Amino acid sequence: EKFDIVKKWGINTYKCTKQLISERFGRGSRTVDLELETQIELLRETKRKYECVLQLARAFTNHFYSLVQTQHALGDAFADLSQKSPELQEEFGYNAETQKLLCKNGETLLGAVNFFVSSINTLVNKTMEDTLMTVKQYETARLEYDAYRTDLEELSMGPRDASTLCRLDAAQSQFQSHKDKYEKLRADVAIKLKFLEENKIKVMHKQLLLFHNAISAYFAGNQQQLEQTLKQFNIKLKTPGAEKPSWLEEQ
């Protein structure tokens, strides 16, 4: 039984390798679904661009986290000097309060940006990747389908003796099996691409609105609007003692 499995695997590998080489050198015909392959290439390009956005958003989070930590330390230093410098108590005091307020607003913005990063990461590395895994299965099935189609065509053009007719029947059966598999996966990919596009639009509409509102409110110094943005998107901040990198929990 193991020998038969290995034998089948070897024959399949040989046929697929032969087909692949033939295609690359322009000698073999290749089944092409132009509409589907255009959508697949668009998905791969979109994924690359979203990965770039994800990388930049993570860099922003790391840099901004360092800024907030520095503001926190600076506020503590001002507060300490306010207690120990009577002649500058008021000046150190309001600077300490300013840094504490900036730190608080910064922590709130970090909560929003971390939520944005988490959502984009899920979209790129789970949702898109899941669809691309099905695409890889489809591409393998397409190669196998063409390999067995070519094999059947070559046998059909040969002599029709008893031995050949037996091999032709076997080739026809294998071809039909791989054709069914190819067509099923092609349909699966088409459905997944459709649902992925709908999901992407829904997710990005929400996340881009969140990112814009949170960034705008923070740099406008609008604390109330910043906090309202987190409530709008159901983002709950962790306590300030939480460890890096996340300041949030999704409800």
TrEMBL record:
Pfam families named in the record: Arfaptin (PF06456)
Keyword terms of this UniProt record: Coiled coil, Golgi apparatus, Membrane, Phosphoprotein
GO biological process, one term: intracellular protein transport
Coiled coil location: 168-199
Residue ranges constituting the AH domain according to the UniProt record: 31-231
Subcellular localization: Golgi apparatus membrane; Golgi apparatus, trans-Golgi network
Primary location group: Golgi
PROSITE patterns the UniProt entry points to: AH
One Gene Ontology cellular component: cytosol
An example Gene Ontology molecular-function term: phosphatidylinositol-4-phosphate binding
Record protein name field: ARFP2 protein
High-level lineage: Eukaryota, Metazoa, Chordata, Craniata, Vertebrata
